[in-house]
């Protein structure tokens, strides 16, 4: 009885956790670019969408070409054939996921490199304006150009890499665990990166680029690398989302997503990865609580279109935090260097002695 | 003698005039508070819905509601400045943070507009999404009045702004507050009042533009947000630091968008039409890479002087 109920809500829980991982990865990468390096990358959703289009397009086209003898990727029949192929063949199912992840990271990084061209030359407000619009144009192109992700209809039939397990819920659970692990790996990597000399370089570029340049630091290179790393990590989030949803829909990548992610960074605390974990959790939960599926679950009928509540919540969160706690819930902390650790130990020892 | 414009030129004139109105407001607020206001598009959408309410609910001509749209959008814009941007700026927030705040405010407006649209269609059985109010317009010799009204309103606004800034005491105070806020404060100019008035004016102009827009374009809660890219491009091309630059930018971008899309559609096929926003984006990128200060920042006197001297 209890097991049956647990079984029924499994997709809901896995969706929540996978979306949390996706949002967390996005928020961490935006934090690297904006929080640590100070580049206002307001077109962040574009880099996620790059990962999504790569995953969808590559998987569908190569699967069709290599195993199914060609055919239009947008047709339902080929989508079904791809699913069946993945059901029968675990190696292909997982191989395509790993391939998409690798290519997605590369292509995402490449677009980050291109986007760093204006990032090194424009004043920050002009840069933010340009990046928002570039991201939006990317979506407009994807929704009108069928060869990217089947335009408005969306590209479906991107099989879950664990679909061959048999039980659909079990494959969702395995996928979710993997998504959480990937998010954790990225967190540890970024945490180490931000405490490294490179992390300090990024902060110095953000705080005072003239001072950084006078110490012989290459500002352009630091900004460029922050953009490249940040956008390839965002592409990972795109790949993860596509293989979970088993499809790519261009209209998922609206500018609002960037600002939902930005609200996580601002709420948690800029330039603080731990804060971002908390911020992402809070906003994802809020997001989930105002989703129609949740209201259906608790049996409440809603009279109006609830999606706009999401806009209101995101807007109010951003404005309130900016006005009343601009440093976020967990404020930025000094970089954990070896020197700082020794100094802390010394202070502790002195206290113990007295 | 009646000059007959081809429909596409008519469309370009209406679009450019309204774009000019919108980018004038955007430039005004940027000049005063140095913040790119992303909620500006939604101020216009407020005007669009005032138009809808006027015609469908009160059965009145939208032109009679111009003051309502002006005041309503003006107040919404004023609240953004007074309640959010000014306290943030006083705390020393950076331009980017102020910009994020305007985006957050825009989200609230988008939600409010969508809920209003739902409310109108549910309670009054009014088509509140993808609606056209072309039938609400008065026709003069079979030409819709908005074709005259849009350029006329724009011209009046430009002349009025010029007179305000050069002929009145308040306008001089305004220019002083823009040039050097702290010095203006020292000589007794109420800088905060000047900024508040600028924000109110900017929002009001956007509201009027949105109201007129409803008479020609398809109205929807995201009408203004979609136009944002054109508005920003028009302001930046004209020069964000020159109020008259918006006039130049508005007509340049407006004509390039409308005529460019129409001609491209004829040349390569209608599939190109959805890519219309690419045109302002390209103009924006080219401007930022070549003359980031906009057209009005070019020192023509110096250029002509160099030519006269005979050497570059």
TrEMBL record, chain A:
<feature type="transmembrane region" description="Helical">
    <location>
        <begin position="307"/>
        <end position="324"/>
    </location>
</feature>
<feature type="transmembrane region" description="Helical">
    <location>
        <begin position="253"/>
        <end position="271"/>
    </location>
</feature>
<keyword id="KW-0472">Membrane</keyword>
<dbReference type="InterPro" id="IPR001851">
    <property type="entry name" value="ABC_transp_permease"/>
</dbReference>
<dbReference type="InterPro" id="IPR043428">
    <property type="entry name" value="LivM-like"/>
</dbReference>
<feature type="transmembrane region" description="Helical">
    <location>
        <begin position="6"/>
        <end position="26"/>
    </location>
</feature>
<feature type="transmembrane region" description="Helical">
    <location>
        <begin position="276"/>
        <end position="295"/>
    </location>
</feature>
<feature type="transmembrane region" description="Helical">
    <location>
        <begin position="225"/>
        <end position="247"/>
    </location>
</feature>
<dbReference type="Pfam" id="PF02653">
    <property type="entry name" value="BPD_transp_2"/>
</dbReference>
<dbReference type="GO" id="GO:0005886">
    <property type="term" value="C:plasma membrane"/>
</dbReference>
<keyword id="KW-1133">Transmembrane helix</keyword>
<feature type="transmembrane region" description="Helical">
    <location>
        <begin position="91"/>
        <end position="114"/>
    </location>
</feature>
<protein>
    <submittedName>
        <fullName>Branched-chain amino acid ABC transporter permease</fullName>
    </submittedName>
</protein>
<dbReference type="GO" id="GO:0015658">
    <property type="term" value="F:branched-chain amino acid transmembrane transporter activity"/>
</dbReference>
<keyword id="KW-1003">Cell membrane</keyword>
<keyword id="KW-0812">Transmembrane</keyword>
<feature type="transmembrane region" description="Helical">
    <location>
        <begin position="172"/>
        <end position="190"/>
    </location>
</feature>
From TrEMBL, chain B:
<dbReference type="InterPro" id="IPR001851">
    <property type="entry name" value="ABC_transp_permease"/>
</dbReference>
<protein>
    <submittedName>
        <fullName>Branched-chain amino acid ABC transporter permease</fullName>
    </submittedName>
</protein>
<feature type="transmembrane region" description="Helical">
    <location>
        <begin position="12"/>
        <end position="31"/>
    </location>
</feature>
<dbReference type="GO" id="GO:0006865">
    <property type="term" value="P:amino acid transport"/>
</dbReference>
<dbReference type="GO" id="GO:0005886">
    <property type="term" value="C:plasma membrane"/>
</dbReference>
<dbReference type="Pfam" id="PF02653">
    <property type="entry name" value="BPD_transp_2"/>
</dbReference>
<keyword id="KW-1133">Transmembrane helix</keyword>
<keyword id="KW-1003">Cell membrane</keyword>
<keyword id="KW-0813">Transport</keyword>
<feature type="transmembrane region" description="Helical">
    <location>
        <begin position="96"/>
        <end position="117"/>
    </location>
</feature>
<dbReference type="InterPro" id="IPR052157">
    <property type="entry name" value="BCAA_transport_permease"/>
</dbReference>
<comment type="similarity">
    <text>Belongs to the binding-protein-dependent transport system permease family. LivHM subfamily.</text>
</comment>
<feature type="transmembrane region" description="Helical">
    <location>
        <begin position="251"/>
        <end position="272"/>
    </location>
</feature>
<dbReference type="GO" id="GO:0022857">
    <property type="term" value="F:transmembrane transporter activity"/>
</dbReference>
<feature type="transmembrane region" description="Helical">
    <location>
        <begin position="64"/>
        <end position="84"/>
    </location>
</feature>
<feature type="transmembrane region" description="Helical">
    <location>
        <begin position="145"/>
        <end position="165"/>
    </location>
</feature>
<keyword id="KW-0472">Membrane</keyword>
<keyword id="KW-0812">Transmembrane</keyword>
<feature type="transmembrane region" description="Helical">
    <location>
        <begin position="278"/>
        <end position="298"/>
    </location>
</feature>
<feature type="transmembrane region" description="Helical">
    <location>
        <begin position="224"/>
        <end position="244"/>
    </location>
</feature>
<keyword id="KW-0029">Amino-acid transport</keyword>
<feature type="transmembrane region" description="Helical">
    <location>
        <begin position="199"/>
        <end position="218"/>
    </location>
</feature>
């Amino acid at each position: 009885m209890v097991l049956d109920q647990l079984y029924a809500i499994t997709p809901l829980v896995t969706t929540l956790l996978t979306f949390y991982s996706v949002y967390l990865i996005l928020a961490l990468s935006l934090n690297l670019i904006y929080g640590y390096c100070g580049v206002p990358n307001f077109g962040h959703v574009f880099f996620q969408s790059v990962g999504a289009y790569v995953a969808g397009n590559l998987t569908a086209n190569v699967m069709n070409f290599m195993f199914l003898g060609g055919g239009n990727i947008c047709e339902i029949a080929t989508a079904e054939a791809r699913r069946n192929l993945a059901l029968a063949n675990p190696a292909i199912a997982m191989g395509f996921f790993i391939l998409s992840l690798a290519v997605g990271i590369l292509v995402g990084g490449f677009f980050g490199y291109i986007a760093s061209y204006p990032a090194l030359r424009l004043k920050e407000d002009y840069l933010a304006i340009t990046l928002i619009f570039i991201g939006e144009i990317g979506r407009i192109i994807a929704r009108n150009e069928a060869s990217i992700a089947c335009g408005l209809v969306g590209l479906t039939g991107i099989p879950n890499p664990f679909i061959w397990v048999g039980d659909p819920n079990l494959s969702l659970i395995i996928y979710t665990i993997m998504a959480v692990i990937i998010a954790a790996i990225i967190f540890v990597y970024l945490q180490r990166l931000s405490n490294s000399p490179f992390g300090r370089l990024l902060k110095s570029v953000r705080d005072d680029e003239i001072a950084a340049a006078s110490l012989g630091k290459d500002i352009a290179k630091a900004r460029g690398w922050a953009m490249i790393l940040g956008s390839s990590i965002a592409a990972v989030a795109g790949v993860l989302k596509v293989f979970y949803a088993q499809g790519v829909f261009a209209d998922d990548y609206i500018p609002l997503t960037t600002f939902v992610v930005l609200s996580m960074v601002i709420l948690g605390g800029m330039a603080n990865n731990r804060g971002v974990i908390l911020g992402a959790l809070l906003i994802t939960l809020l997001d989930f609580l105002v989703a129609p599926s949740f209201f259906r679950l608790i049996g409440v009928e809603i009279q109006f279109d609830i999606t706009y509540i999401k806009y209101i919540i995101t807007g109010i969160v951003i404005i309130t935090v900016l006005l009343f706690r601009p440093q976020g819930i967990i404020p930025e902390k000094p970089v954990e260097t070896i020197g700082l650790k020794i100094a802390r130990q010394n202070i502790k020892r002195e206290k113990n002695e007295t | 003698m009646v000059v007959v414009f081809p429909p596409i030129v008519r469309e370009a004139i209406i679009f450019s005039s309204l774009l000019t109105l919108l980018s004038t407001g955007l430039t005004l607020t940027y000049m005063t508070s140095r913040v790119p206001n992303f909620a500006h598009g939604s101020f216009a959408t407020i005007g669009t819905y005032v138009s809808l309410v006027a015609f469908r609910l009160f059965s009145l001509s939208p032109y009679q509601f111009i003051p309502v749209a002006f005041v309503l959008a003006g107040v919404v814009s004023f609240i953004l400045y007074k309640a959010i941007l000014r306290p943030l700026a006083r705390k020393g927030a950076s331009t980017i943070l102020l910009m994020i705040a305007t985006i957050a405010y825009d989200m609230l407006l988008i939600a409010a507009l969508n809920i209003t649209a739902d409310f109108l269609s549910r309670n009054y059985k009014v088509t509140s999404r993808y609606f056209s109010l072309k039938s609400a317009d008065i026709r003069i010799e079979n030409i819709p009045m908005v074709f005259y009204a849009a350029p006329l309103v724009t011209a009046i606004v430009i002349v009025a702004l010029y007179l305000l800034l050069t002929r009145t005491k308040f306008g001089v105070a305004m220019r002083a507050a823009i040039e050097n806020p702290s010095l203006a404060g020292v000589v007794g100019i109420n800088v905060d009042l000047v900024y508040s008035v600028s924000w109110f004016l900017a929002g009001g102009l956007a509201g009027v533009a949105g109201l007129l827009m409803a008479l020609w374009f398809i109205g929807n809660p995201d009408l203004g947000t979609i136009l944002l890219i054109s508005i920003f491009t028009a302001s930046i091309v004209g020069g964000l630091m020159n109020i008259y630059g918006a006039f130049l930018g508005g007509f340049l971008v407006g004509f390039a968008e409308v005529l460019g899309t129409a001609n491209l559609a004829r040349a390569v096929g209608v599939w190109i039409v959805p890519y219309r926003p690419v045109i302002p984006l390209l103009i924006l990128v080219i401007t930022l890479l070549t003359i980031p200060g906009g057209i009005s920042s070019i020192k023509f006197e110096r250029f002509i002087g160099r030519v006269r001297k005979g050497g570059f």
